[in-house]
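Shape matters. As here.
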Amino acid sequence: MNGAAIWDAFRRIPKYANQPDSARIEFRPPDASCNVYLALAGMLLAGLDGIRNRIDPTDAGFGPIDQNVFAWTDEQRSKIKSLPSSLNEALHALEADHEFLTVSGVFNDDLLKQWVEFKLNQEYYAVRNRPHPYEMNLYFDV
């Protein structure tokens, strides 16, 4: 994952706005439970990385796709990249690709490493190692 992929997740260009006077980019902010200072700084750096490196999200495999992907072959669908679908996947993607966050000195490797460790130990493993309330309903509410 790179800066363009993250930036693509936070912006939307409506399909119906196809004329110059109606075209716009919608800013779609992150979840309200996040640290807004870290999130907005990361989003800005991702956008700058995409601009600086002239990364086209469509060419990189992140869409937008205006076709019925369910009619595609498996080979065509395999070219579509997706964003992380869990906290664990997102943290591993951040560990693997975070250079765009450190280029300007806003973030450094130590901060990112400590943040990933904290999120893994205090949130991911803590939730993963305990039964979910839905599991309680499925198995213990007989």
User: Anything to note?
Assistant: The helical segments are 3-10, 36-52, 74-77, 87-96, 99-102, 109-128, 133-140.
